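General statements about sequence and structure are easier to judge against a single worked case. Part of our work consisted of pairing the sequence of a single chain with a tokenised description of its backbone. The amino acid sequence and the backbone structure tokens for this protein are reproduced below.

***
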Amino acid sequence: MQHLVLTGDSIFDNASYVPGSPAVVQQMRSWLGTQWTVTLLAVDGAVCTNVPKQLEKLPDDTTHICISIGGNDALYASGILLDEDVTATQVIDKLAAVRTQFRADYHSMLKKVLAHRLPTIVCTIYDAIPDFSDREATGLSLFNDMIVSCASDYGLPVIDLRKVCDERKDFSTLSPIEPSEIGGAKIVSAIKNVVLNHDFGGTRTVIYAK
């Protein structure tokens, strides 16, 4: 038996955004079949620094960990881009500080996760959100850059959700920043591909787009 644990935020904990339809964890269990157990530790609204707390509930028989975190960190910092009373230089300085802090938080989080010595997968933050502005997508790229950079420091596989969820139908009609049943199915398919096919004994980061 294999045991996959999903940690992070509402990308995985999306049940309340797909009422009447299977959430990501339910789809994951269906797609992986009876030889796998899937546990949801992710919590809607979580930020990067919450993940180590989630893993205090890590089951003893866990074999794989998948992390999707960072969207709420970006959301809380988005006010910087909406402030029109500051100069471009001030905006850049603020974004630089946010970038530095997020990298430190993400790096610290990964160290604590990897202390469990289990195959670990990380996800980027999708940016094809309906009505998402170019300004917001630009700001989000700073967070995604840090996720990929930190994953590369440890040779971890990365699922690039920017390529996985890239259509309007991939997002919930109740909240456009959450995955719909369709988007959830795409995410599940990408995770399944990695857990079944990735060489976790390697040290080179591989970015999976589907």
